[in-house]
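User:
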Amino acid sequence: MGVHPSVRPVKQSQRRFRPELVPEIEKEVDKLIAANFIREVKYPSWIANIVLVKKKNGQIRVCVDFRDLNKTCPKDDFPLPITELKVDVTTGHEALSFMDGSSCYNKIQMDPKDEELTAFRTPKGIFYYKFKMNPLKCAFGVTSGKFLGFIVHHQGIKIDQSKTDAIRKMLEPRNITELKSFQGHLAYIRHFILNLARRCQPFSCLMKKDTSFEWDESCRNTFNNIKAYLTKPPVLVAPIIDRLLLLYIAAQEKSVGALSAQYDEDNKERSLYYLSRTLVGAELNYTPIEKTCLALVFAIQKLRHYLLAHSTNLISRTDPLKYIMS
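Assistant: Predicted structure:
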């Protein structure tokens, strides 16, 4: 972990739990011991507390508060993989296998000299984590499965139903924090939403500094329209190598957008990626042709990894060009 020897170890004060939760904690600890997930330790220099989280199946997950330990560890500069690229390479296969690591430090093999740094306190004693895969989350030879928040199968990529359900169940925002939360949920699935920037335009006034939060009819309609759109979101596909790519670009008064697509084996056009953004500052004063060019530059920057691998047909409205030629 790279903890510097000069750092003073932290032993968190013991937390109290409701009496009715203690048997559940002990039961979970017994399961972890029996599965060889954890090992008891004596006289550790670092001690963290457990945090209880209720899982989707109603069971208790025993997590650990490692914030003190994390602060002393050097930051890993290795970047996280790009979700869209990982999802793309997973689709298009007839059979898939999924493996998911169990919670917390069960996901990785610990360096023996670092194991005791992960010590945590429970009603049954002090333990540290080892390594184990979670068999309940492993699937082999299936035609589809959940991967990084999406459903992948040989026909394409869909949004995980739980993601759209969570958005559709959200109440109208009452303040800027709740509005940011709503937009944060949309950001993860933005490449599934056509003209997201234009759809969210009424929200932009509420995001400005020193502006009172006034949720009007326009915001309400936008909020409901987005949730209605997500009742049946599009199914995207991953790009097929050596096949022509179609790039649609468009420019509106306050936003630009693009769509990449390809023809499938049945000569049917399938969407690959939607993207859009709001115009800001001097961009709002651009002429129509300048906004169209900006849409092209924006699309090239975001989809460069696709465009470099495929011959591409560019498709756009001809009105700005007709104006220049005349």
